[in-house]
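Colleagues,

For the teaching module next term, I've prepared a clean inverse folding example: a structure given as tokens, and then the sequence designed for it. I'd like students to try predicting residues themselves before seeing the answer, so please don't circulate the second half yet.
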């Protein structure tokens, strides 16, 4: 008998038959275990906010919220998603370097916990919007610190960046509280970088961020009601990487948090996590359409590709590294061959896996890319060659639920307008 990949007892072939491929499958139990694996060990004063950027599916957000996650959003649609998923406004923060007037207004009108401002002009705009509404706007300042994070996949702070306000600049602004009377300056946020796989680096970052927040609060005379220490917790994808150990991490973090809360008992502490919460729970399932050889190499041409999973091309490196992959419908067969796994796009870049050890692949097989629950379709060129968005399925409590329909041709065509070169009176300047 062949061994098949299953999610909570639901067979992958059944999911493929029912929903078609390509398909993202999310395991609700894996999401829960991931969240609780950290939550149950982490100091209770540290709240976990889910960064919707990693996977903005509304059902994923709702499920994580049901486990206890709050929400960190960066666009109007993410904000709406979090609220519709049932996250109360006081558990939502809004971040991002280029927020629109409309987004800032929505922050104030929905009554979210904090707008994290990334420049002084942004604070001024929020001040103006608050005055128009006769409210006081809760604002935290995103700081770009002087120190940089070591061994992060992608540094977001500690160097010239469009994010946040430079530490040096902020320390010179001790009239901020007075200058913006309709802004309630209530906290500090720092986000150092993503894909950190060393517990000690996260502990050190957190320590330095909390210390910076205290210094800023003294210098600017602002009340420290909230400190958001960012996060950047990674997951391993490639050979030679290993996952963070939640126990080791919290053994290091908890005393730092305890020490801070002893001095600031009322301060709300926030950690923002995207990838760490969702990556492991997702599998990208592709159906193999054709197999062939080219100049001695084997190719499995699948119905899915980099238009849904750009990260599989190899994040943060110039060398192609493969995500963990398998032939899902024959898990028990030994990987005796090497296969290039490619998609339907007309570019050699559409290579999901290069020389992946797999068993002999046949058309109709289901190839899965594991750990694909974060930065999948929304971080990929989904419109390239007009294939559009894949279906997404959540399996929870032993049952599968379609949580995103795949795009159909009409979905992709409906926003285009046909200009007719032969018509006499094509209206111009129409918006
Ligand atoms: C992208 C981002 C996150 C989430 O990052 P992960 O590495 O997915 O956890 C959190 N906060 C900010 C400010 C971000 O830009």
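(Answer key — instructors only)
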């Amino acid at each position: 008998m062949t061994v098949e990949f299953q999610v909570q007892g639901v067979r992958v072939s059944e999911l493929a038959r029912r929903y078609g491929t390509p398909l993202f499958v999310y395991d609700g139990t894996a999401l829960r275990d991931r969240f609780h694996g950290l939550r149950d060990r982490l100091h209770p004063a540290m709240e976990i906010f889910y960064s919707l950027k990693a996977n903005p599916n509304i059902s994923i957000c709702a499920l994580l919220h049901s486990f206890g996650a709050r929400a960190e959003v960066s666009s109007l649609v993410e904000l709406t998603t979090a609220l519709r998923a049932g996250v109360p406004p006081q558990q939502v923060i809004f971040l991002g370097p280029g927020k629109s007037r409309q987004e800032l207004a929505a922050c104030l009108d929905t009554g979210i916990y904090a707008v994290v401002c990334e420049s002084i002009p942004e604070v001024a705009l929020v001040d103006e919007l608050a005055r128009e509404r006769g409210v006081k706007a809760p604002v935290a300042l995103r700081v770009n610190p002087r120190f940089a994070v070591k061994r992060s996949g992608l540094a977001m702070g500690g160097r010239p960046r469009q994010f946040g306000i430079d530490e040096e600049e902020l320390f010179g602004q001790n009239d901020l509280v007075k200058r913006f009377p309709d802004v309630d300056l209530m906290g500090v946020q720092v986000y150092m970088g993503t894909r950190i796989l060393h517990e000690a680096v996260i502990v050190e970052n957190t320590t330095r961020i909390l210390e910076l927040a205290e210094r800023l609060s003294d210098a600017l005379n602002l009340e420290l009601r909230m400190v958001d220490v960012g996060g950047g917790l990674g997951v391993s994808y490639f050979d030679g990487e290993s996952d963070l150990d939640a126990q080791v991490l919290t053994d290091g973090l908890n005393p730092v948090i305890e020490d801070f809360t002893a001095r600031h008992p009322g301060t709300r502490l926030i950690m923002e996590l995207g990838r760490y919460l969702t990556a492991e729970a997702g599998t990208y399932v592709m159906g193999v359409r054709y197999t062939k050889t080219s100049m001695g190499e084997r190719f499995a041409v699948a119905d899915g590709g980099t238009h849904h999973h750009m990260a599989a091309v190899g994040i943060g490196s110039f060398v192609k590294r493969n995500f963990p992959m398998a032939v899902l419908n024959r898990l028990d067969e030994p990987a005796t061959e090497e296969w290039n796994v490619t998609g339907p796009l007309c570019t050699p870049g559409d290579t999901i896996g290069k020389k992946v050890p797999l068993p002999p692949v046949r058309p109709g097989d289901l190839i899965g890319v594991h750990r694909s629950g974060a930065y999948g379709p929304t971080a990929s060129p989904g419109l390239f060659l007009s294939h559009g968005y894949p279906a997404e399925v959540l399996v929870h409590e032993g049952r599968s639920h379609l949580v995103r329909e795949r795009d159909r041709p009409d979905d992709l065509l409906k926003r285009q307008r046909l200009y007719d070169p032969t018509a006499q009176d094509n209206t111009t300047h129409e918006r």
